[in-house]
Fold this sequence. Notes:
- The protein is an alpha+beta fold.
- About 25% of the residues lie in helices and about 35% in strands.
- The chain has 2 domains: about 1-130, Histidine kinase-like ATPase, C-terminal domain (Heat Shock Protein 90, 2-Layer Sandwich), CATH 3.30.565.10; about 135-320, 4-Layer Sandwich (Phosphatase 2c, domain 1), CATH 3.60.40.10.
- A hairpin with a 2-residue loop joins strand 9 and strand 10 (about 225-230).
- The protein is globular, with a radius of gyration of 20 Å.
Amino acid sequence: xxxxxxxxxxxxxxxxxxxxxxxxxxxxxxxxxxxxxxxxxxxxxxxxxxxxxxxxxxxxxxxxxxxxxxxxxxxxxxxxxxxxxxxxxxxxxxxxxxxxxxxxxxxxxxxxxxxxxxxxxxxxxxxxxxxxxxxxxxxxxxxxxxxxxxxxxxxxxxxxxxxxxxxxxxxxxxxxxxxxxxxxxxxxxxxxxxxxxxxxxxxxxxxxxxxxxxxxxxxxxxxxxxxxxxxxxxxxxxxxxxxxxxxxxxxxxxxxxxxxxxxxxxxxxxxxxxxxxxxxxxxxxxxxxxxxxxxxxxxxxxxxxxxxxxxxxxxxxxxxxx
Length: 322
């Protein structure tokens, strides 16, 4: 899942400008239902101004379809389920049809998570085409811009690649691109994964490229094997707990030592989240008390990135969900 465009909504003029952009500047074929998509944008962005101090609207893309993401850091919605009922509204002179109408449509899944916790609060909403069904989702928000993004992700058959090259410039992006190409050109096996990482380590060192933290995963149905080097975090949601494991063992291209491996099985409703250091661990800790089982992998990536990203680093997240 990638960001096509991000809009700040702080005043009515922002809504008018963004509506014009959605109507005229983007690929018609990627909207499942364009009129409903824009209606949803208008309702949600109006809510940002009425109920919060403003927020962000994301035009996202996955599998040639557009998704609509909305995030704010307001006080949160105390009664989320009730807010989706017909006729309910906290605003005066309102018919209470906004969120209810958005959640009752034939084209998009409407997913919402809101928290009023003291430690962090706000709301995340995703409008996702019903056609999208993948259980492995990657989402990244670069600190500067995509051309300088050192975070990388790729999939090849049952294998996935995830990592972060040091820095936020063209050299970082060059390192990320090199590792990705190496991933696609090398036969992989988790049994021989140490050799793959050692080869990348030598190549990065010889070519004086940036160091990187890196992970290779193998997903076979609900059986997951993850092999990583460096400062990457694995959050594993099993039953009602969200536990943390880390891969802290060196940096390929610089001080590489050995690969750390984790193997586990995901039961129905369970998931794992893999993050770069652009996701703040103290914020992820708050999700230990929250059940995300009913949400799609797309929404979990968006919500966790919204609530836990750092403003000062490339922030990327992978969710694998059964």
